[in-house]
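Section 3.1: Structural characterization of target chains.
Under the original work plan, the team committed to producing a structural model for every single-chain target entering the pipeline before any wet-lab resources were allocated. The record below documents one such target. The sequence was received from the expression subgroup and is listed exactly as submitted; it comprises 284 residues.
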Amino acid sequence: MSQEAPRRSVLRSAQRFLVFLFMVALAGAVVWLLSMMHARTYAVEQRESELWVMRGRELPTGFVPYRPVDKALAQAYAPLPLLGDSPGELLNGPFDDRDALDQALFRTLKGWIDVRLESEDPERRGQSLRLLKRVELFTGISADQREQLRDLQAKVSFFEGRARLEEAELALREAVERLRLAAQTRNRYAAEAGDLYERTAGLAEQLSRATRLASAAHPANSDPKRPPNQPPLPAEAVPPDGAPSPSAAPPAVAPSRSDAGAEPAPAPEPARGVDGGMGSSDGA
């Protein structure tokens, strides 16, 4: 009996030690599993006037700024400035994976783009183009969101194209005016400037008229505040090819080098009859 008691005590101690080691290993496995799961989660944090995309640490808790090595991903998840916009649901994270983050970012940025497209400020509409380029980098959006993305691309392209047409019209009017001034001088370029002026004087008016006709045919796109049941404005008839526009003023004829500075010829006097009164050419 005296020898069995110490042996049983040693066995109990060994069993307790093995149970302790098993509990420690199990706790370590749980901590490692939670750390791996947390490292795959994402969150969005507001820092002053910017939104930062955060990624979970390789620990059960805590987040660090997400800085991917890939350049496209780095552009997609770069700090996002808040220009009077609401972060919406982005601050309600964390998100279980990057697909969930992309879908939440898409919903928020889509709302920002829609607001900017309705603005009359060119700078705000320019911001919508930059936001769209970032949205196009999100690879985890759903199939329905991809359809919405194509619609956004079409809308932004329309407003960008119309804005460039307005810029082209303004630049064309300025160029025509400069040609007109150059044609009125007596230097070596006057004749060529006059020729260019005669050939391009009506282009700006034609471009402006084409834009007005398209806007009149689709008033809902030109003025979003117009009620949908209001009839469109009547569009004036389009003249045939080669015919001058009725609203366009005829271009002035540029003086050539030979007659530059010459006085205009006097108008001919009307023919008079024998009696001193006005008469026709056959004396009737």
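Residues 161-220 form one domain.
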